[in-house]
Design brief:
binds S-adenosylmethionine, 34% helix, five-stranded antiparallel beta sheet, eight-stranded mixed beta sheet, globular
Length: 363
């Protein structure tokens, strides 16, 4: 059996096409062959894509500063911790500032990534390794800071297409030994899509349903604190812009992007940009306050990323850091496409990361 057999059998057993969210869930999270569950996924320069903490330690150092401001004797909980590098960066910087939390929890779905995280953190910070604990579910009454970098974009999405003045769900069928898009017969009636009248026929986009439940359980299990969501995405008006006719779905394989999720099954990452207006609405429905929304660039600048450069004495390190900062903050690199959103529960401190820019009104 391989993923193609498993998914085509699911479609056959269903007697109907399956939703793209079901397809994406199998391709990314199937317990044996899913991209995030098997040992094929490699992060960083040698892998399929590179994330901000893999780009520079300064990313985690800045996040640590934001954590420090609101930790208040609480702990940190990171979702989907990748190679573990972000955890190491945050803990290193908090240690440097004498503000280490008692516990740094990680919730990771991939057994292979968990092993890599253990190695990374043990190697970087052997003396505080025992503060890191891997959990399989959210801890009750959690107090502190929750961090999720590039996690929401990995949640399975539904695909919908505009036709005859209505949206229809685009499912996945299997015919002639190939996966194919298949429009469902009945219109898609969920209230999640807000759009004007000017969408062209065939306009296709994505909606994420999984984030609602995730945010609700996060709110319910948190006693108090801050949730920092960092991801590529945009507000609703940009997300459903009439010119974005083919949505935001992207696949990554060996640092090349393509828009065909039906190839490299289990060997490529599949992502969709985050609709932050939708996340804000679901968060408010869950009970959170949306306290900050800004570009990654302005978030890092608000937290003083340039100070790390100024305080570096060696010229060769300075050059390296300057390059890394460029990558994190320049609009053409990660600076503008990536956004940071802060959700709070029973927390009234004005967050340092949004000092220079807070775009919550535009959501
Ligand atoms: C693109 S990777 C990001 C890795 C890392 N945060 C980084 O920035 O390098 C997405 C991660 O999200 C994880 N993930 C997706 N859904 C999750 C969930 N519901 N709970 C925890 N982790 C999840 C995946 O297993 C994967 O490790």
């Amino acid at each position: 059996m391989n993923l193609e057999d498993i998914i085509s059998k699911t479609i056959k057993d269903n007697n109907n096409p399956i939703g793209f969210d079901v397809f994406m869930n199998l391709v990314l999270y199937h317990h044996q062959f899913g991209y995030y569950r098997s040992n094929k996924m490699i992060l960083g320069h040698k892998g399929d894509f590179i994330t901000a903490p893999e780009t520079s330690d300064l990313f985690g150092f800045c996040l640590a500063r934001q954590c420090k401001q609101v930790l208040n004797n609480g702990n940190i909980l990171e979702f989907g911790a990748g190679s573990g590098i972000l955890a190491a960066q945050i803990l290193f910087e908090l240690g440097r500032q004498n503000s280490l939390p008692e516990k740094y929890f990680i919730i990771e779905l991939s057994a292979q990534l968990k092993k890599i995280q253990q190695q990374t953190i043990k190697r970087a910070l052997p003396e505080i390794y025992d503060r890191v604990e891997w959990l399989t579910e959210l801890p009750r009454n959690f107090k502190g800071v929750v961090v999720a970098n590039e996690v929401l974009d990995a949640f399975p999405v539904k695909r919908i297409t505009f036709w005859n003045n209505q949206f229809y769900e685009l499912g996945v069928d299997y015919t002639d030994n190939c996966f194919q898009w298949k429009r469902f017969e009945r219109p898609y009636l969920k209230s999640k899509v807000s759009y004007g009248d000017d969408l062209p026929e065939g306009y296709t986009t994505e909606i994420s349903l999984q984030s609602d439940g995730w945010l609700k359980s996060l709110y319910d299990l948190m006693a108090e604190g801050v949730v920092l969501l960092i991801d590529y995405g945009m507000s609703q008006s940009e997300y459903f812009h009439p010119q974005r006719t083919d949505g935001t779905l992207k696949c990554f394989h060996k640092h090349k992007s393509n828009n065909n999720p039906f190839i490299h099954l289990g060997d490529q990452d599949i992502t969709a940009s985050v609709n932050f207006s939708d996340i804000a609405k679901s968060s408010i429905d869950a009970g959170f306050k949306v306290d900050g929304f800004s570009t990654q660039s302005m978030f890092l600048i608000s937290l003083g990323i340039e100070n790390f450069l100024i305080s570096e004495e060696k010229t060769e390190n300075k050059i390296k850091l300057a390059q890394e900062i460029k990558q994190l903050v320049m609009p053409g690199a990660m600076g503008e496409v990536f956004k940071v959103m802060a959700l709070t529960k029973k927390q009234s401190v004005k967050l340092d990361g949004f000092k220079e820019q807070n775009l919550t009104e535009r959501l």
